[in-house]
What does this fold into?
Amino acid sequence: QGKVGEGNNLNMQNMMDPKMQKKNYEKQMKDEMNKQQEMEEQRRIMLKEFLTTEAKERISRLALVKPEKAKKIEDIIIQNASSGRISTKLDEPAIIAYIEQINEIENKSNTKVIIKRKVCESDDDLGIDENL
It folds into this structure.
């Protein structure tokens, strides 16, 4: 009889599990969102520290048109600032230089080689028999 009672307790626990799972899932999602917000805030603080107003505006305008490129530039700035390569605030011409560097890299990676072969006269016109 003890086993039957234990089985009922296990069933009750299994019934509560979905509620617990939902709470755990919601907590994990909330924690992850908070973590992302903290990272974004740290990112903004670091960019604010190393960019002039004009440079920030330039990146903002770029982000409207090409958000992935703006993020690349921000990532490069953060990486350079973290490693100590940037000691003063970057101005708009410096951002333009970063944009040009990324454009060059992307253009090199998007280069396609197309091989065009000369069109020759067909073998029939030359009098060559294919059955030989």
